[in-house]
TrEMBL record:
GO terms for molecular function: ATP binding; carbohydrate binding; protein serine kinase activity; protein serine/threonine kinase activity. It is an enzyme of class 2 (transferase). It is found in: Cell membrane. SMART domains: B_lectin, PAN_AP, S_TKc. It catalyses: L-threonyl-[protein] + ATP = O-phospho-L-threonyl-[protein] + ADP + H(+); L-seryl-[protein] + ATP = O-phospho-L-seryl-[protein] + ADP + H(+). This is Receptor-like serine/threonine-protein kinase. The chain crosses the membrane at residues 449-474. Residues 1-26 form the signal peptide. The keyword Oxidoreductase does not apply. Its EC number is 2.7.11.1.
Length: 811
């Protein structure tokens, strides 16, 4: 059974990518034959010039040479396949790729002890040739019939999977094709990270470390997609898409494949040195590869990413840090982003034979870490002191942890994650790492004093917190009921608190799809003015609601509204946010006159607002541990602080409401006019629904008017259709808010209109990611002229607009 589906499933494949490939050169020879070997600086070039094969060095500082295939028409050397990954040559002049007497294609090195460094290893028994195809596939074929392929590089991947290749399993032979990451950015030898179809026979793909530890899975294929990758969902309704991406489960083989029909688009799928799967597209105008999709999304979810004695820190660069008392094993590789070798001690531990007489080793306490999973329990240790002594008594013990049970670690500590800045749970605790006595100050060399300092610090912190809480409670006379801090810094309020804070909900700020918002005041608090949202129609139980609120409360970004607390009492659910003095964006865009106390928003301010919204959504979609789909992007949900900096509000509320956003629900109350077609047609919802809504919002930011307005004759004017037409006519300046009197950067206006049109494409896969939108608005990615979406053409007719939206849920 074969299932094929459109690349609409790959977020970020499409978007602003009408790339201009370099014109093909007169093709060099693309064939290796008997008597016609390849050596030195010679190279093969595929017939249309897309790929080249020859000897290369992976880095300027490298002394090693490898035989490989790379892209021939882009400005950055990028290797996609290497023959001799484990056996480099020192001089390409003494090496050659040739056809041997037995018909195999072989790599020979005259200076090596064993002259055959690499071979195709097939029994041909006839005359053969080696041929480099325009797909990047190197094949060994019958010399008289090159379509009779005896061996191909597409059956022996390196770290890169090219369009047309099959990543899967031969059911008859049991052979599995794998992607192996490079060992380092300057070393193409197979590394520890690999991607493969489950060798046990299921239809899921696995990322593993060192051939054993599986740290990511796609989930099984269901016929429509992979259960663990919701964005990879079948869209067979788009047969004319330029991209095909699918899974085949046949009698003889099972495999994953993808194809790119537009030859101007250059893509690559690889397992990176970082242990992540990455899908990249080349953007010639930027001179670099642009990342469009990666898994696992959280870098620290990659097993042993930072090597031994280092901790992974999410959303920071560099993502790995050596522990106290350790330094980088390979500093240069570390600076290049390759941390696999980990860290080594600054000072060696006391020799084991000397410890019986006296042991001055100390322990450094590192709190808020995800503990490694390879610990050994010590049942006899009944206290932290017993646990410490158990570690000291074993020469190979490098760390311990005690949380009622004693756990010891031996050898290099791997897979540590510093969770202090992320608030992630799941195995977090304190680990005590063994260091040499010289790593501690003279006042702190003894373990007794270290423990005492920890105890004193904890006691002082506890007393300080207790005093502050007591003072806060005593001075808080208007709010008599107690508030409790939960899950970090979130405050838990009672409903009576909320009545007092909002003066019985007397000052309404506005309302939206999820409920009404009221102004409030917290006396004697760090944040005095607040906005209290009364949620309507919440379906979740108390425990689940609190869990979801706690998750949202940990999300921190300069362009996302800050959640301060919540109330969950009976059927009442309220959220407390920081108050934004300049209110929501709609009052500044659509007011009949200037905003109270302010003039008309300048173009510069509008552009920064658009960029801020994009950055906030990019964070929600791709930087959070789990993708958060907003589901209701509109001007009313974009708030502005006193400096007109953007704060996206109401994020995560679709999840709080207990909705299943993987399908359309009749109770969904996203706002008509901003809803993506998926909501209406019943297609699965992904982050691209937010991209569509953002595009509609961007049109309104440019024009300063609602996208839908009624004309004097009673018909409807749909502005996005007008803007798309003017964009094609080269008249984008006329789309700008008339109140600005033409005072706008024409280049930015054109860029914004192009981005908006790309965002509202009919096919989900044709829309860019918010990360790409950010890069486009920042000018880092060249934005090509978008096609006018079918929807905009249809809704350009006022009569069709009424028909299209009739019967939809009300806002």
């Amino acid at each position: 059974m074969a299932t094929r589906f459109s690349a609409a499933v790959l977020p970020l494949l499409l978007g602003f990518l009408l790339l201009q490939g370099a014109p093909s050169r007169a093709a060099d020879a693309d064939t290796v034959a008997v008597g016609r070997p390849l050596s030195g600086r010679q190279r093969l070039v595929s017939r249309r010039g897309k790929f080249a094969l020859g000897f290369f060095q992976p880095a300027e500082s490298s002394q090693n040479w490898y035989l490989g295939i790379w892209y021939n028409q882009i400005s950055k050397h990028t290797t996609v396949w290497v023959a001799n990954r484990d056996t480099p040559v020192s001089d390409p002049a003494s090496s050659q790729l040739s056809i041997s007497s037995d018909g195999n294609m072989v790599l020979l090195d005259d200076r090596a002890k064993s002259p055959v460094l690499w071979s195709t290893g097939v029994a041909s028994g006839g005359s053969t040739v080696g041929l480099l195809l325009d797909t990047g596939n190197l094949v060994l074929a019958d010399a008289s019939n090159t379509s009779a392929v005896l061996w191909q590089s597409f059956d022996h991947f390196g770290d890169t999977w090219l369009p047309g290749g099959k990543l899967g399993r031969n059911k008859r032979t049991g052979e599995v094709t794998r992607l192996f990451a490079w060992k380092g950015y300057d070393d193409p030898a197979p590394g520890v990270f690999a991607l493969e179809l489950d060798p046990n026979g299921t239809s899921q793909y696995l990322l593993n470390w060192n051939g054993s530890m599986e740290y990511w899975t796609s989930g099984n294929w269901t016929g429509d997609g992979f259960t663990g990758v919701p964005e990879l969902t079948a869209y067979s309704k788009y047969p004319n898409s330029k991209y095909k991406f699918g899974y085949v489960d046949g009698v003889d083989e099972s495999y994953f494949f993808y194809d790119v029909k537009d030859e101007a688009v250059v893509t690559r799928f690889l397992v990176d040195v970082t242990g992540q799967i990455k899908f990249l597209t080349w953007v010639e105008s930027a001179g670099q590869w642009i990342l469009f999709w990666s898994q696992p999304k959280a870098q620290c979810d990659v097993y042993a990413l930072c090597g031994a004695f280092a901790a992974c820190v999410e959303n920071e660069l560099p993502s790995c840090r050596c522990l106290r008392g350790f330094r980088e094993r390979r500093p240069l590789a570390w600076l290049q982003g390759d941390h696999a070798e980990g860290c080594v001690r600054d000072t060696a531990l006391q020799q084991c034979t000397m410890r019986e007489a006296k042991n001055d080793d100390g322990f450094y306490a590192m709190p808020d870490v995800r503990l490694p999973s390879d610990a050994r329990g010590v049942v006899s240790a009944a206290s932290a002191r017993d646990c410490e002594l158990a570690c000291i008594g074993e020469c190979s013990c490098t760390a311990y942890s005690y949380n009622g049970s004693c756990w010891l670690w031996h050898g290099g500590l791997i897979n540590l994650q510093d969770t202090s800045s992320t608030g992630t749970g799941g195995g977090s605790g304190t680990i005590l790492i063994r260091l040499a006595a010289s790593e501690f100050t003279s006042q702190g060399r003894t373990k007794t004093l270290i423990i005492a300092l920890v105890i004193v610090a904890a006691a002082v912190a506890a007393v300080t917190v207790a005093i502050l809480v007591s003072v806060f409670v005593l001075r808080r006379r208007r709010v008599k009921a107690q508030r409790r801090v939960v899950e970090g810094s979130l405050m838990a309020f009672t409903y009576r608190d909320m009545q007092s804070v909002t003066n019985n909900f007397s000052d309404k700020l506005g309302g939206g799809s999820f409920g009404s918002v009221f102004k409030g005041s917290l006396p004697d608090a760090a944040v005095t003015l607040v906005a209290v949202k009364k949620l309507e129609g919440v379906r979740q139980g108390e425990k689940q609601f609190r869990a979801e609120v706690s998750t949202i409360g940990t999300i921190q970004h300069v362009n996302l509204i800050r959640l301060l607390g919540f109330c969950s009492e009976g059927t009442r659910r309220l959220l407390v946010y920081e108050h934004m003095p300049n209110g929501s964006l709609d009052r500044h865009l659509f007011g009949s006159g200037p905003s109270p106390g302010h003039g008309v928003l300048s173009w510069e301010t509008r552009y920064q607002i658009a960029l801020g919204i994009a950055r906030g959504l990019d964070y929600l979609h791709d930087k959070c541990r789990d993708c958060i789909i907003h589901c209701d992007i509109k001007p009313e949900n974009i708030l502005l602080d006193d400096a007109f900096a953007v704060k996206v509000a109401d994020f995560g509320l679709a999840k709080l409401m207990g909705r299943d956003i993987s399908r359309v629900l009749t109770t969904m109350r996203g706002t008509v006019g901003y809803l993506a077609p998926e909501w209406i047609t019943g297609t699965a919802i992904t982050a691209k629904a937010d991209v569509f809504s953002y595009g509609m919002l961007l049109f309104e930011i440019v024009s300063g008017r609602r996208n839908v307005e009624q004309r004097p004759d009673g018909t409807v004017d749909f502005f996005p259709s007008t803007a798309a037409s003017r964009l094609l006519d080269g008249d984008v300046k006329s789309t700008v808010d008339r109140r600005l009197d033409g005072d706008a950067d024409s280049g930015e206006v054109e860029r914004a209109c192009k981005v908006a049109c790309w965002c509202v494409q009919d096919e989900e896969g044709a829309r860019p990611s918010m990360g790409t939108v950010v890069q486009a608005l920042e000018g880092l990615v060249e934005v090509s002229m978008p096609p006018v979406p079918r929807m905009l053409k249809v809704l350009g007719d006022p009569a069709n607009y009424v028909k299209f939206f009739s019967g939809l849920p009300s806002t």
